[in-house]
TrEMBL record, chain A:
Homodimer. Heterotetramer of two MnmE and two MnmG subunits. K(+) binds at N233, T252, I254, T257. SUPFAM superfamilies: P-loop containing nucleoside triphosphate hydrolases, TrmE connector domain. This is tRNA modification GTPase MnmE.
Automatic annotation (TrEMBL), chain B:
Belongs to the MnmG family. NAD-binding protein involved in the addition of a carboxymethylaminomethyl (cmnm) group at the wobble position (U34) of certain tRNAs, forming tRNA-cmnm(5)s(2)U34. The lineage of its organism: Bacteria, Pseudomonadati, Bacteroidota, Cytophagia, Cytophagales. Pfam families: GIDA (PF01134), GIDA_C_1st (PF21680), SAM_GIDA_C (PF13932). Residues 545-616 form the tRNA uridine 5-carboxymethylaminomethyl modification enzyme C-terminal subdomain domain. The gene is mnmG. Its cofactor is FAD. Transmembrane segments: none annotated. PANTHER family: GLUCOSE INHIBITED DIVISION PROTEIN A (PTHR11806), PROTEIN MTO1 HOMOLOG, MITOCHONDRIAL (PTHR11806:SF0). This is tRNA uridine 5-carboxymethylaminomethyl modification enzyme MnmG.
Length: 455, 620
């Protein structure tokens, strides 16, 4: 355990729950003297004498009037998130009350915390290290289990491992170039430019999916986009409602700039799914065929997962044609609906596609299998690859990619090794910004261990 | 008998000479103490100055107003610009020197400086009062007072020479070791360590058969080190290249059991990039031959230096192995190679001025700091001399940034990372290599040297003239358009794509196949444009135009780094209150006491997350 005493700083306060009207809001106060500060405006038990991790009922007043009835939780150093003395005030979730309480705290000497300042203090006081701190920032933003899992995976260093492997390859490349630069006068082998190009191309191929995975990483945070595609009256709207009903877990229904982009998101098995163009799905009654197809194609483009819904051989043929236009990187499911109406036709239709899931949106039978399959698809996608979710990591990967591309351009132009080396170093520098490692010493160590040099 | 000096310099090697010359030129009264007046500026190892990265350092020393470049120019017997097939940042001047002339020339320079006094003796002890150095006490028992002391003891502190199973005290072959000083410094609280280096045998050039070797002549159009008006060589001597072979290796192996290195008698760590020949064949057993450079020691002498054959095996084994090398069949040996162990003081005990943290006005420079190489030593001596003078006169420290000079890289590496093995400069140690070129050292540094009173006004004027010309040429190239009719003939000869419309010359220069020189050869228009300018200015302008995108990229990195350099850490910052620092990071920070976040980021053992922690603390 870290036995160094915690360095407590000035008192900061902030609303810890999302702003907007909720039933309850939590105001967090942290820093040296935070407990006595809150105690001075709190009527109830003497908080300074309270044990750590205890909750107390009372009122908060500005000296003349009572502002609210609150529950106050006391955390004593070092047993708090920031490791400082901290208090959490649970009050009623009105903007007015929240503002008043924060104002009183400020009048008592606290200041409003800057974004991330609680995490920063936790970090400064040794609660966790830097990469962990970044992952914690993601955890805070994570509002679904899957997003949570990605953040945790990052904490465990799966991401760092992948980058470390890349770095080793790059360092080898860089050493070869540096060798011919610093020891070109001596009897050393020169780096084969063709081999170097192959190596860089391989590196680019490795980094590209990591960069692309940022989209998946984001998808997990923003919700995995799903499109339900099918001819009119196959039951798209019913299926959507059934899914929403079954989980009773509508997260939100966002209206965009046009009513076309209404999207419903829901949590299924801890993963956030975002259904695209639900407005279009709900309008199937007066659907003109041509518009329907255009709209379906647009929805498919935005989706990671496409549910092809059909209820007969005829409607299957329609979507089969559509499904053949689907890019290879999209996942899709064939779903046979209305098995309650025409149970006899079901077995035959099954044969149309081996992985068809049969459901009845109306009676909700088979919905479990469908949601299980949806969840499995996401897990499959995120388990095979390291997912980059941190924006800073993404930026440095992108810069690594750009610098490596500059190396390729340099090779094509035939620039000399010192300039190639500059771009390779830049790539290493950007990777280092993520994994945090020194370049120069590694290069020399690598050179000295592998090559016989020296007059 | 002695006045109180401003600066006492102990040792008269490359570091000591530069330190004494710099401090004296700036106005300090300097006493140079050396054990032997006959070995001032003695080249203990190979008779050469410069080389990759090292040549850039000599140019920097010269640009600041130091003497190594001038001495090298006046005493060289061969000059080559290495790495010309690579980019301009890699071009590295190197010369073969006349060993005896080099020493004589240095001594003349020092003797001609009225502020330099000499004393032949051994410094045994420092005079220290209240944590401040007050002078030295010599082996003759004389106490000489001074306001500052620069120690440049080289390999002499408890030097121990090994040849086979024999070993004896000595600082260089034929010279005594210096004892006493290390022990006192350790008592004062300094950490000391042990390092090892080696040198090859010297042979009689008359006994060699050069017809069995490859000739390595000097450049057809030799350049030089100094930005002053020293003259390039009119005639040169060649070096020769030959190779070891399996037979040589077999003979060497017969001496392994008597090798002081393999037997563990040598405790100090040697440089990995300058291994002894026995180390090479032992560690890289699959390599069937190693290169040998046969270097003349001067204009007149027949003595020859066998570069690449550093060894501490018994002299009879050295001799027998040498004679198996093609061209060496009848070689007569003048002096055997040997290994030498010596004391050094881990340089993390120094400030960026090379003053010790522990004792005020005490400076260390050269091999005593764990470096190797004449150039590395000389530039430290220069910086220590400058800063000793400035300390004594209550002037601010003179420190060069990593983005300004290899000298900055070297000192910054030493004080922050320390070194486990003899430290040699490589271009790969510089993160801003593209900026730290041998062609622009004057532009980078001469104004600074002038400001501190070291570089002369003539030097400054020359740089200003060069800069003006460079700007002028750049604007001409950026605005002069050539038509396809005018230039396509020249382009055709350079085997590059022809023009279809008028293009600026600066645009054309971006093509790798095209150089100003080639354009001028093939196009009278271009030849006319540059005729009025100095060759150096044209080259400078060309580099700036040709590689502007790479230079710009590097400048961006410098800006970024400078932001960290501008975040100061207060002198007595209490690292103990920063709980989330790693244990190792905290200990290293407490020991090195960096003055900026930038410096902290380069200390080995301080992780990037430690830096983020510090930035959070300081950013507030």
């Amino acid at each position: 355990m870290n036995t160094t005493p915690v360095h407590q700083q000035e008192v900061i306060c902030a609303l810890a729950t999302p702003s907007g009207v909720g039933a309850i809001a939590v105001i967090r106060v942290s820093g040296e003297g935070s407990i006595s500060m809150v105690n001075a405006i709190f009527k109830g038990k003497n908080l300074e004498k309270a044990e750590s991790h205890t909750v107390h009922f009372g009122t908060i007043s500005d000296g003349t009037d009572i502002i609210d009835e609150v529950l106050v939780t006391v955390f004593k150093t070092p047993r708090s998130f920031t490791k400082e003395d901290s208090i959490e005030i649970s009050c009623h979730g009105s903007d007015y009350i929240i503002r008043q309480i924060l104002k009183i705290l400020i009048s008592k000497g606290a200041r409003i915390a800057k974004p991330g300042e609680f995490t920063q203090r936790a970090f400064l006081n040794g609660q966790f290290d830097l990469v962990q701190a970044e992952a914690v920032a993601d955890l805070i933003a994570a509002d679904s289990q899957s997003s949570h899992k990605t953040a945790l995976n990052q904490l465990r260093g799966g991401f760092s491992k992948k980058l470390a492997a890349l770095r080793t390859e790059l360092i080898h490349f860089a050493s070869l170039i540096e060798l011919e630069l610093d020891f070109g006068e001596e009897d050393v082998e020169f780096a084969e430019r063709d081999d170097l190009r192959k190596l860089i191309e391989h590196l680019l191929e490795t980094i590209a999916p990591l960069i692309e995975s940022f989209d998946l990483g984001n998808a997990i945070k923003e919700g995995v986009p799903v499109a339900i595609i099918g001819s009119p009256n196959v039951g798209k709207s019913t299926l959507l409602n059934a899914l929403l009903n079954e989980e009773k877990a509508i997260v939100t229904s966002i209206a965009g700039t046009t009513r076309d982009v209404i999207e419903d998101t829901m949590l299924l098995g801890g993963i956030k799914f975002r259904f695209i163009d639900t407005a279009g799905i709900r309008e199937t009654v007066d659907f003109v065929e041509s518009i329907g197809i255009e709209r379906s194609i647009a929805a498919m483009e935005k989706a990671d997962i496409v549910i092809f819904l059909f209820d007969s051989e005829e409607t299957f043929r329609d979507i089969k044609a559509l499904s053949e236009t689907l890019p290879a990187d999209k996942h899709f499911l064939f779903v046979l609906n209305k098995i309650d109406i025409d149970i006899n036709s079901a077995p035959r239709l099954y044969l149309l596609h081996e992985e068809t899931i049969a459901i009845s949106a109306q009676t909700q039978s088979g919905l479990g299998a469908l949601t299980t399959k949806l969840i499995a698809l996401v897990h499959k996608q995120s388990a095979t690859d390291t997912v980059v979710t941190n924006l800073r990591h993404y930026e440095h990967l992108q810069k690594t990619f750009n610098s490596l591309t500059d190396v390729i351009n340099g090779l094509t132009l035939g620039v000399t090794g010192d300039f190639l080396a500059q771009d390779i170093r830049l790539s290493l520098h950007h990777l280092g910004e993520i994994t945090g490692t020194i370049v120069t010493d590694d290069l020399l160590d690598n050179i000295f261990s592998k090559f016989c040099i020296g007059k | 008998m002695f006045q109180e000096y401003d600066v006492i310099v102990v040792g008269a090697g490359h570091a000591g000479c530069e330190a004494a010359a710099a401090a004296a030129t700036m106005g300090s009264k300097v006493l140079l103490i050396t054990m032997n007046m006959h070995t001032i500026a003695q080249m203990s190892c190979n008779p050469a100055m410069g080389g990759v990265a090292k040549g850039q350092i000599v140019r920097e020393i010269d640009a600041l107003g130091g003497q190594s470049g001038i001495v090298s120019d006046k005493t060289m017997i061969q000059f080559r610009m290495l790495n010309l097939s690579k980019g301009p940042a890699m071009w590295s001047p190197r010369c073969q020197s006349d060993r005896a002339m080099f020493a004589t020339e240095w001594r003349n320079i020092l003797e001609n400086n009225p502020n330099v006094d000499f004393w032949q003796d051994t410094a045994k002890e420092l005079l220290v009062e209240d944590g401040q150095v007050k002078g030295v006490k010599t082996s003759l028992g004389i106490e000489i007072k001074s306001k500052s002391v620069v120690l440049t003891n080289g390999t002499f502190l408890n030097g121990l020479i090994h040849i086979g199973e024999k070993n004896f005290g000595g600082g260089r072959t034929g010279e005594k070791a210096a004892t006493g000083l290390t022990e006192q410094l350790v008592q004062l609280g300094f950490q000391a360590g042990r390092m090892k280096t080696g040198t090859p045998p010297r042979v009689d050039g008359r006994s060699l058969d050069y017809s069995k070797m490859e000739e390595q002549p000097g450049d057809e159009k030799p350049a030089k080190f100094s930005y002053t008006d020293t003259k390039p060589l009119a005639k040169q001597r060649s070096c020769w290249i030959t190779y070891t072979n399996q037979e040589v290796h077999d003979v060497l192996k017969t001496g392994f059991e008597k090798s002081p290195m393999f037997s563990g008698r040598i405790k100090g760590l040697g440089p990995r990039y300058c291994p002894s020949v026995e180390d090479k064949i032992n560690r890289f057993a699959d390599k069937d031959r190693h290169q040998i450079f046969v270097e003349p020691e001067g204009w007149d002498t027949v003595e020859v230096y066998v570069n690449g054959f550093s060894t501490s095996l018994p002299e009879d084994v050295q001799y027998a192995a040498l004679r198996k090398i093609p061209g060496f069949e009848n070689a007569k040996m003048f002096r055997p190679g040997y290994a030498i162990e010596y004391d050094y003081f881990p340089p993390t005990q120094l400030k960026s001025t090379l003053e010790t943290h522990l004792i005020k006005n005490l400076f260390f420079a050269g091999q005593i700091n764990g470096t190797t190489g004449y150039e590395e030593a000389a530039c430290q001596g220069l910086m220590a001399g400058i800063n000793a003078h400035r300390n004594v006169n209550d002037l601010s420290p003179f420190v060069l940034k990593r983005s300004e000079a290899y000298i900055g890289v070297l000192i910054d590496d030493l004080i922050n990372k320390g070194t486990e093995e003899p430290y040699r400069m490589f271009t790969s140690r510089a993160e801003y290599r593209t900026l730290l070129r041998q062609d622009n050292a004057d532009i980078r540094l001469t104004a600074k040297g002038y400001e501190i009173g070291l570089a002369s006004e003539d030097r400054l004027d020359a740089v200003k003239k060069k800069q003006n010309e460079v700007e002028h040429i750049i604007s001409i190239f950026a605005t002069t358009k050539v038509s396809p009719e005018e230039i396509n003939g020249a382009l055709e000869q350079m085997e590059t794509a022809l023009l279809r419309e008028k293009t600026t010359l600066s645009q054309l220069l971006k093509r790798p196949q095209i150089s100003v020189q080639k354009l001028a050869e093939h196009s009278s228009i271009v030849a006319g444009l540059i005729a009025a300018f100095e060759e150096e200015s044209v080259q400078q302008a060309e580099i700036n135009l040709k590689y502007d995108s790479y230079i710009e990229k590097e400048m961006l990195l410098v800006d970024k780094m400078n932001r960290l350099e501008n975040l100061n850490i207060i002198d007595n910052f209490n690292y103990d209150i920063v709980t989330s620092l790693s244990y190792e990071g905290r200990e290293k920070l407490k020991r090195t006491r960096p003055s900026t976040i930038g410096q902290a980021s380069r200390i080995s053992g301080v992780s990037p997350s430690d830096i983020s922690v510090l930035m959070l603390y300081i950013g507030r």
